[in-house]
Amino acid sequence: MSVAPMLDWTDRHCRYLHRLLSHHALLYTEMVTTGALLHGDVARHLRFDAAEHPVALQLGGSEPQDLAHCARLGQQWGYDEINLNCGCPSERVQRGAFGACLMNEPQLVADCVKAMVDAVSVPVTVKHRIGIDQREDYGFVRDFVGTVAEAGCRVFIVHARNAWLKGLSPKENREIPPLRYAVAAQLKRDFPHLTIAINGGFQTDAAVQEQLAVLDGVMVGREAYHNPWWLARWDTLHLGGVDRALTREGIEEAMVDYMEREARSHGTPWYAIARHMLGLRNGLPGARRWRQVWSDHRLKQLPAREVMAQARRQPVVKPPTEI
């Protein structure tokens, strides 16, 4: 079980919340481009809390030597895996000649993987789509996986939709191209020695279990973010862990402790962290008011612990007016 890399969402604060909920799920960074690491603030992009392990760094790029250098940085900073993004369809990523468009150049991807494998001792993995645009022939993705596997990649995370490089936004690319889980299952049959995980559209334990019966792993994206409490079941249901009797209140308090540490150590405002836990009480009475308090910009100057106290206060119910 893993939580997908999601741009602007799975930052280190989000991952800290997810780790509180699941001890064993693999967590991924949002995509970090090679340019950001080669020319930007490395610490800002790579710093994470030791509690996040196991955690993987996802890189975006297409130059083998740049990727090798950034993979080495990832290993030096302590990441447990280096993942290459071959699935993002955004136009900005396409202009950089990486992401999903790399699937059209499997030998280049193989060269990138080989450079990274030679540079680090941690696993190098690839996340990819099952096709490009309206092309749905299985041979395309089969040959891509086969070529990249020869370069030393042993783990493939298959986003079970095509990536339409023209005409759809990144959001539409997560919803409009149809899910084809059978493609991932066929890849596992054709490459039984490889680890094949699947990503795309998972919202229930039953759907996860169905895929784990035939594949090696399931990656969950948006549902894990919007409904993070789901992760509290993953260790016992899917990962062989023990029930830790978690409570939403306990998780909220642990996040407030973390907010206070981050404020002292790095000057991080609590609201930059709280935004990731707004789905924690989804489906419970009072969840809407709780979210409103934690996202109220008028409370930004208050300490996080006082905001938590306000969020937990029951609203005053006025008696009905007599007529």
UniProtKB/TrEMBL annotation:
Pfam families: Dus
Keywords: Flavoprotein, FMN, NADP, Nucleotide-binding, Oxidoreductase, RNA-binding, tRNA processing, tRNA-binding
Cofactor(s) listed: FMN
Reaction(s) the record says it catalyses: 5,6-dihydrouridine(20a) in tRNA + NAD(+) = uridine(20a) in tRNA + NADH + H(+); 5,6-dihydrouridine(20) in tRNA + NAD(+) = uridine(20) in tRNA + NADH + H(+); 5,6-dihydrouridine(20a) in tRNA + NADP(+) = uridine(20a) in tRNA + NADPH + H(+); 5,6-dihydrouridine(20) in tRNA + NADP(+) = uridine(20) in tRNA + NADPH + H(+)
Source species, domain of life: Bacteria
Alphabetized GO MF terms: flavin adenine dinucleotide binding; FMN binding; tRNA binding; tRNA-dihydrouridine20 synthase activity; tRNA-dihydrouridine20a synthase activity
EC main group: oxidoreductase
Active-site residues annotated for this sequence: 88 (proton donor)
Family statement: Belongs to the Dus family. DusA subfamily.
Protein name per the record: tRNA-dihydrouridine(20/20a) synthase
Lineage of producing organism: Bacteria, Pseudomonadati, Pseudomonadota, Betaproteobacteria, Burkholderiales
